[in-house]
Fold these 2 entries.
Entry 1:
Amino acid sequence: MTSRFLSLALAAPLVLMAPVPRPAARTALRPYPAIDAAVRAGIKRGLYPGAVVIIGRHDRILYQRGYGHFTWSRRSAVPSPATTLWDLASLSKVVGTTAVALRLVDQGLLDLDAPVTQYFPAFGGGDKDRVTVRMLLDHTSGLRPFIPFYRTAASREEAITELLADSLRREPGMTPEYSDLNAILLGLVLERVGGLPLDSLVAREVARPLGLTHTRYRPPPALLPRVAPSSSWRGQPVAGVPNDQNAVVFGGVAGHAGLFSTGRDLARYAQTWLRMGRVGKRTWVRAATMQLFLTAGERSGTRLLGWDSPDTSASGPTAFGERLSSAAYGHTGWTGTQIWIDPKRDMFLIFLTNRSFDPHRARSLAGIRDVRSRLSDVVARLARAN
């Protein structure tokens, strides 16, 4: 964490973690040694100090457990599937931004094939006039993957101006390339359409109707002892600030990152997708709209709308492993977070870690990819046995 990052982070809560009482971590419904072994292997390898796993179906939880500690100190708290909040990083794209887009499309307020310039005329010019909302969701817009706004912009407003003025790197709609800029711009579009800041839209359209009581941006001070740290400052754990300097520039609320949540909240979210939008006797989103977001475009590759799906041509381990069905979809986050949902198996996996906090092993990203792949395969085998 740079001094520049710390100064920007003052707009969001910042707490240096102190030892807190350990919450109960053994919340498993029945033992699954292979799951425990896969997750503990990552701790033993020094990839992350703590984790939670939740596995379930559309109507029940099969397994949930916390592992390790908030930090590498055994005096720190043991993660809880129900109460520990995690820096979701890019899971913010699917739990926050994509979910709001889904709701607004379902309500007829957002047109996937409308040009972005309909909402932000300043974005236009040349091929940019052809970029649609759909292209932001399936990453075929042609925008570059990343701009270090934390180095070039002194405020959210300056970052937005820079984003809208940036030129495309590829012809729009032709090839997918994963980009934080797509999600950031989509978040701004949603604010224009929904008439509220993004955090308020996520609360109104997603968290409240789905009962995600712990899902929020910018956790307040009272919750910080329950937040697993995802970064450190001068050797001290830091909780409540996104491990994403661009998200900090945006005040902790951005389309690509900034959301915090618990394993149990994400399990409820995954179950809503497995139930195709049904929440009890209510309909959160119509099944046809859900299916629309789970359909790849002709040129979007493995990219769905917001979500990713397994790549059968990939070499080496992936977050989906090798045993999920072709209908599976999911996402990962820089901090060490993961969600996948497999409707054909009626199964979901929530795997949350704080890999970005202080990994004790080089190439921790490659290491956690191995853990994710192994865990996914274990869970896929579990689906057949239950």
Entry 2:
Amino acid sequence: MSPLPPAASACVATFSKPPKGAAHARIVVHAERDARGWQVRIVRFTERQSFTDPACDAIESVESLIERFLDDGWGQVLLQTPDADVHILQKFKQGAWKRTMRTGKPSRSDWSNITRDRVKPRALDPITDAQLLHALDISDAAGTIRTGMSDKYRQICHLIDIARASITGSEVRILDAGCGKAYLSLALSYVLQRDGCTVHLHGVDANEHVIEHCRRTANIIGLTHASFECVTIAASRPPWTDEHASTDVLIALHACDTATDEALVLALRLKAATILLAPCCHHYVQTQLQRERVPEWARPLLDDGITRERLGDLLTDTMRRDILRSQGYTAHLEEFVSFEHTPKNILLRAVRSSIPADDRQRMAGAVESMQHAWGIVTRCAELLKHDDA
């Protein structure tokens, strides 16, 4: 008996309970019928990844494909069609497969383009947001992403999604420390304003040329509450620093070396609700790594420049993360774009939280222990110590 209803024009078959030794935890078959036969897309899932099989030509029978996976030993199938769901269970008993089928009401309502790859909508659309992308010099006036700017476009879209996830309320204050051309903060402000928020943006940078560029761009895209100031991060103060206003998001993307530490300390002084830091170079700690001061077992890591450099990167960003945790933030290091697009792909994301005092003290101790063990001190720790003095 075929598990597929005779009149079915489309189906999604989800195979679970894999056979012993299977490379995948789940397989999903998407199929729809047209004049050429059945069009099929197969996606295979491991615990952490998914892989889509290359597109295959139209096949005469999707039933035979379902039977093939069942014969391979998959123990459970949920077969969804527009008219009904069919739940199939099978077990191997006494030398043969024993199969049971149960039919129920259809659970899937969307049957559009099920065999085509799903494209996740981006925060910025090249056509509808062409004015912004052109002002940022990411696209031309027609909305075509410029050659060499596609990576920047993907980075900005992804970071906008990350930032929006932690923003609440109808009024948002964003501080961009070491803003450069302010790609992210301008785009994020534009998107939030488009969504109905009142956005106050303040960007700071020591380069007067990029500050003038940011002012022109903000005017072009209609950001009415945007200001930019030529000043160092350490000396900067946003225009809303009073008892009734707070910094919702502090951004520092690729602020060089200790400028990232200055941005982090500024965020702590302002009690920023969300912090997004993408560190750049890490010379300050790298130059402190000396063979006679690091643990003996770790000394081979200093033999080559590349391992010394990456060790310095990891130690610096780990201690920055734990300093934020010791100051009452939930903080994580994550990869925000694929390494193939840029090697500067680490994001330190932190959200101000209610962290118990014992946990904060424990993280402060962890930072002290790490600095002692490696014979180093981060610039962030030095700046905070100076503040406490």
